[in-house]
Amino acid sequence: MRFTKVVIPIALCILLLSFAAPAQRKKYGRAAKPQAPLPVVSAIDTEALKGLITQQRQRPLLVNFWATFCDPCRDEFPDLVKIDKDYRPNSLDFVTVSLDDIDQIKTDVPKFLSSMKATMPAYLLNTTDPEPAINFIDRRWQGDLPATYLYNEKGEVVYKHIGRVNTAELREAIEKAVKKSDSQ
Amino acid sequence: MRAKNLSILFAAVFVIAGAVLATGARAEGEVPAPPAIGATIDDFTLPDVDNKDRSLKSLDGKNGTVLLFIAVQCPVSNAYNERMAKLAEDYKAKGIAVIGINSNVAEDAAAVKAHAAEHKLSFPILKDPGNKIADRLGASVTPEAYFLDANNKLLYHGRIDNSRNAAQVESNDLRNALDSAISGKAVEKTEAKAFGCSIKRG
User: Fold this and answer.
1) Predicted model pTM
2) pLDDT tens, A38-49?
3) In terms of residue numbers, what domain contains B115?
4) Within a domain: B154
């Protein structure tokens, strides 16, 4: 009799606490937040890259070639993200093409894009020989990064810059290309 | 007195503006054009990692010289360390010298020396202060190679091979050029785009 008087209340208390604890954690948000998935980076080979650039389009296309190992590429990325937010919703297509190693397609490349809050379509050039792609983009380009190209709807280069972009100059070129596109 | 002060002020503004314009004259990322294949590369002198002046003439090979623009921190250049060391070793006996050049402003001689020791790069490496030789040769990236014949005539310019991943090498462009020259044949592929990290110019 004495045993039940002591043990039953203790057991009830433990039971109540075990229910209350998760509710408490939930209330104060102490449970670990589920991590946002990393952005998807698609592998693109030289032929697919050619197709992407030459395809018929309704709006100008901005392509930024970069790599995680390239300091000026990382430095200019916040500016590119701002440009993407300002223009892609209404008047511009924008893709990034990483020249990192294919092994980094699910690691370093999406991690960097995530840290930049970059949401433009992202590709990684999947090739053992980058020369044909470099020559297709621009015979005068040596493959040094970053490199940024703006194409009109016909796939013609209307602006290019090798090295860290000059944001004001790039925005001016985009405005010009977008205006031309609207007037046609 | 006031007029004199004003003229000093104007002169100072003029000098500062001139300096700003001069430094900004070359847009970032713009690299001078490389010499044409067949052009003769003039002798030059650069300090080595022990700060001793070394001329191209004092280091060149009797059958030719490879100038390799390399870096300490660039992962692409570093992916080639073993291949560059092997290249220098393989062609030394064939009379071709390999000379490394580091033109990156942020990588000093001590860092270049330590890096070379760590990665067993036994060929001489020169520092290129003010990237004068990188500009003269139009070098854009690391690694980037120039192969000169015994008379310092440019026979090949570009990449070492097609892939930074040694297991995926299909086209040994630099070695092919060296082998052709050694056997007295014309170099078939004289240019192949070098891919790597941009040279950090000062």
Assistant:
1) 0.79
2) 999 999 999 999
3) 33-198
4) yes
